[in-house]
Amino acid sequence: MTARAADRARYDRATAHLDAPLAIVDLDAFDANAEDLLRRAGGKPVRVASKSVRCRALLERVLAKEGFAGIMSFTLAESLWLARSGFDDVLLAYPSADRDGFAELTADPKLASAVSVMVDDVAQLDLIDAARGDGREVVRVCLELDTALRLLGGRVRVGARRSPLHSPAEVAELARAVSRRPGFEVVGIMAYEGHIAGVGDSLAGRPLRSRAIRLMQAAARRELVERRAAVVRAVRAVVPDLEFVNGGGTGSVQSTAAEDAVTEIAAGSGLYVPRLFDNYTSFSGRPAALFAQPVVRRPGVGVVTVLGGGYPASGAAGADRLPVPYLPEGLRYDPQEGPGEVQTPLLGSPADDLLIGDKVWFRHAKAGELCERFDSLHLVEGDRVTAAVPTYRGEGHTFL
Asked: Three-state secondary structure along 95-132?
């Protein structure tokens, strides 16, 4: 029996009393992945990206491990909810235009001390001030650096379009603007190198493209190491008591942690290890989060149909954004249909061994987005479900 076949047998036994659709997290794999992130971080604290987890119970579990510290959130409403729930170090990773949220933040000392907000433009400060009302609490501000690699005088850009702040001078100037403004305090810098951390460099069957990605990432790392260090020096000249410099992501933990300028690493997807993180030479993790769909039809030889399953992930549309049938091994989509909203036909010889009501296990393309489809996660230890915990959705929250 292969390791994957053994996992399938465990998951089927553990959930035999449960009807699909359902989602699980294998706690042995989750904990092993957490330990691997810490190993790769080399002693620097790891801030957990909540959008890749979207379950308070699992955020609490990983933050209870020594070496993990703080949350990187994705909306202001989520940040405030987490802070009210007892998380005392929440870094909002994206700028917000949530006026009601800013009014609440600036009126509550506990929230204002727990939440840091992302800023890359003076206009964002104007919006916060306009939303304050009677709130007079100091807002903790993190400045975001654009990490994109620019070539040929800026005519070629490699990397996500995020912050407009690219040079040390630009970031330092915004730091001065924030420092001069009453009611705000610069506490950190964030620089997410998504073109390194979030792009796999070992694509199955595509050796030339994989090599091109590795060459691009090596050049991007060299450029960013120097520029990030220069940015930190420039900002510390304005804000000597800067609290943190955040960088990285699951795919670049060890290279980012090696930079002296970086004080903490961000990671989250590496806990669940969705399918997009199968294609890295820098690490390999254990799939920890899966979902099961029930077989509801047997249309013919070599074909079964499962209920639902059409759960595409965000990003540029393509086959890599789709979930993949994982267990039993050997199933594939019908290219004429793909995964459907209500039903999904699956092809392959393993289909002939599946009965009505059997489970087919899938892996989602991106980590936390799976939790937008399920109210709860069944936690598996060995061949038993030991608990069921609510996702954000199960607690009545869909923040985006």
From this structure: CCCCHHHHHHHHHCHHHHHHEEEEECCHHHHHHHHHHC
Q: Which residue has the tokens 């490699």?
A: 158
The rounded distance, in Å, linking the Cα atoms of 121 and 125 is 7
Which residues, listed in sequence order, are joined to residue 387 by a DSSP beta bridge? 379
pTM (2 d.p.): 0.93
**Do residues 289 and 323 make contact, with C-beta atoms less than 8 angstroms apart?**
no
pLDDT tens digits, one per residue of 128-163: 999 999 999 999 999 999 888 777 777 777 777 888
pLDDT at 198: 65
Quick count: other Cβ atoms within 10 Å of Cβ 283? 18
* Rounded Cα–Cα distance for residues 394 and 61 (Å): 18
One DSSP character per residue, 168-198 reads: HHHHHHHHHHHHHSTTEEEEEEEE--HHHHS
Report the candidate in 311, 190, 287 with the shortest Cα–Cα distance to residue 245: 190
State the Cα–Cα distance between residues 143 and 146, nearest whole angstrom: 10
Q: How far apart are CA 84 and CA 112, in angstroms?
A: 11
Main-chain dihedrals φ then ψ at residue 24, nearest 5 degrees: -130, 160
